[in-house]
Amino acid sequence: MQVRGPELVRRLWSGVRRIRPPRTRRGRRRAFQVVVALTVLALAPATWMNATAGPRVRGVADVPAAPVAIVFGAGLWNGVPSPYLAHRLDAAAKLYERGTVRAVLVTGDNSRHDYDEPDAMRAYLLRHGVPARKIVGDYAGFDTWDSCSRARRIFGVNRAVLVSQGFHIRRALALCEAAGVDSYGVGVASKHDATWAYGGVRELFAASKAAAEALLRPDPHFLGPHEKGVAEALG
């Protein structure tokens, strides 16, 4: 029998209420040790991610040059980039203008006919001065690992500047490094609103998935044939 959401919550809460704290000093000490161990295990992936990627986070003005900027999708509002995505694209346009990068790979979700992140990102960059021949779209960047893995395996990118918000850039760096892309990242500043807070909390949970992906290096959801778009943009 399928248990519906409210009933499942009720049962879980009922189980939590039945838990009794240890009555002996030894029991309390053991319970404390278990809590500490679980906390360390939970935070280990985030610690790994920050230690691996932290030194490679820079600003637009001081990030080392690379052939390509990779901009990760961050949602559309009525068919145009969300404010968070627009901030990423603004940074990428500045990197191109400064000569830090020579091409921009926009990677995002195009799993539905009515939702096309890469083309919306391309149109935004065109309006901000990046030539069409310098913009390459990856239409199967369904998540960060897919974007990094496809950048290396499909588009042949081996060195890049990654562009994302500060709360996400370290995970992007760690995963792209695992995928074989030597990278620095630009952590784009954003307003500390509810979306920013949600993103920060989400990263704590996403770190465990990222650690597994970096270790196992699975195929992306859609691999497909090699594409020459980046090579042609650089040529």
Share of residues in strands:
5-15%
Q: What is the strand tally?
A: 8
What's the story with the biggest beta sheet?
A: 6 strands, parallel
SS-derived structural category: alpha/beta
Uncertain runs are 1-5, 35-42
**Molecular shape:** globular
Give me the strand/helix succession: HHEEEEHEHEHEHEHH
Strand order of the largest sheet: 1-8-7-2-5-6
Our measurement of the CA-to-CA distance between the termini, rounded to an integer number of angstroms, reads 60 Å
How much helicity do the residues have? 40-55%
Mean pLDDT score: 83
Number of helices: 8
Q: Tell me the Rg in angstroms.
A: 21 Å
Polypeptide structure, described:
This protein is of the alpha/beta class. Helices cover about 50% and strands about 15% of the residues. It contains eight helices and eight strands, in the order ααββββαβαβαβαβαα. The chain has helices spanning about 5-20, 25-55, 85-100, 115-125, 145-155, 165-180, 195-215, 230-235; strands at about 55-60, 70, 75, 80, 105, 135-140, 160-165, 180-190. The strands form two sheets. A six-stranded parallel sheet has the order 1-8-7-2-5-6, with helices on both faces. A hairpin with a 2-residue loop joins β3 (about 75) and β4. α6 (about 165-180) packs parallel to α7. The longest helix is centred in the N-terminal third of the chain and has 29 residues, at about 25-55.
